[in-house]
Design a protein that fits this description.
The chain is mainly alpha-helical. It contains 14 helices and three strands. A hairpin with a 4-residue loop joins strand 1 and strand 2. Residues 1-20 have low confidence and may be disordered.
Length: 330
């Protein structure tokens, strides 16, 4: 690893008091604004991804300050490997290390195109392979119970409680029917739902639009919400949002997550939690039922087929469990 303290400008990145944390060089921090605009406007990355990537590059810059590095020219492969090793030693998960490596590669590739650096030292930086964790998937009887309880269970009979019940039932049915991400769900407007064709138009990652089909149970639940529940909560803050919070504004992601978490907690016999569990479940059940892998990729809005293939592993794993339980020579 190259230590830049002997190079021009290197020690300017360090504070004079050895007991204080070194301050990153302004020239390094200044590039972050341009990189953030690149991610948002040119790459169309989600707000979550932008925050994560900017945070990852900030971590890199902070580590550079501890080594007295104040110029982008000094971000060589040796330093990047040292930084990644330090991240590993701190106990970060492999998935986080893989993302941080991707963030630094993306940043330095952008910096090279902008003339900030002459070469992308991260191009040869190897990230640890992320562990492939099989997601929790509901069994079909569990899904039936989940959706039946959403249709039947009502703790209170006042208008607001009934409206929330209708809303939660509709969003649960729609999440399982479509495999939508929670951000896509809460972004749906009234005009995005085609009741005749039973499809919904959503904006996914990278601002990519797609149209997703859904079935009759989801249509019935959404129709009940629109007829009985939404008018109770709607006010001048509602706009064209399909799903509303209790104060009438567009339903937020946290509120949607809470609704799903409550419903899953009532099952009592699953480790699945949150809206993504229903996305995993929908994809797995489609593949179990014989759906084409590329059709499921299109439904979920995955840019890479490799991401969708995770669900084939879920199905194979379930098949293996069934085989081991049932076959006399397993």
């Amino acid at each position: 690893m190259r230590v830049a303290s002997g190079q021009a400008g290197g020690m300017d990145a360090m504070q004079s008091n050895p007991g204080e944390r070194p301050t990153a060089a302004p020239a390094l921090v200044a590039a972050l604004d341009g990189f953030e605009r690149h991610l948002r406007l040119e790459r169309g990355r989600s707000a979550h991804t932008v925050r994560a990537y900017i945070g990852d590059v900030r971590s890199l810059i902070a580590s550079a300050a501890t080594q007295g590095i104040a110029r982008w020219e000094d971000f060589d492969l040796g330093f990047l490997r040292w930084w990644l090793g330090e991240q590993r030693e701190s106990g970060l998960a492999r998935s986080t290390l893989a993302r941080r490596t991707a963030a630094v590669r993306t940043f330095l590739a952008w910096a090279r195109r902008e003339g900030i650096v002459e070469s992308n030292a991260a191009a040869r930086l190897l990230a640890p392979r992320a562990e492939r964790v099989l997601p929790h998937v509901l069994q079909r009887p569990q899904v039936d119970r989940l959706l039946e309880q959403s249709a039947d269970a009502l703790e209170d009979d006042d208008a607001t409680a009934t409206a929330r019940h209708d809303r939660d039932r509709a969003l649960l049915e729609l999440l399982y029917a479509t495999g939508l991400r929670v951000g896509e769900l809460v972004g749906i407007d009234l005009d995005d739902v085609d009741h005749d064709r039973r499809t919904v138009r959503v904006i996914g990652k990278g601002d990519k639009e797609r149209t997703v089909p859904f079935g009759v149970p989801a249509l019935d639940a959404v129709s009940d919400w629109l007829r009985r529940g939404r008018p109770v909560l709607a006010n001048d803050r509602s706009g064209r949002a399909l799903f509303l919070g209790l104060r009438g504004g567009r339903l937020g992601q946290r509120q949607a997550r809470d609704a799903v978490a409550r419903a899953l907690a009532r099952l009592g016999d699953t480790a699945a939690s949150g809206p993504h569990a229903l996305r995993h479940t929908a994809a797995t059940h489609l593949l179990d039922g014989g759906a084409d892998l590329r059709a499921v990729q299109e439904l979920l809005g995955h840019s890479s087929l490799n991401t969708t293939q995770l669900y084939t592993h879920v199905s194979v794993d379930r098949l293996r469990q069934s085989y081991q339980q049932a076959h006399p020579r397993a």
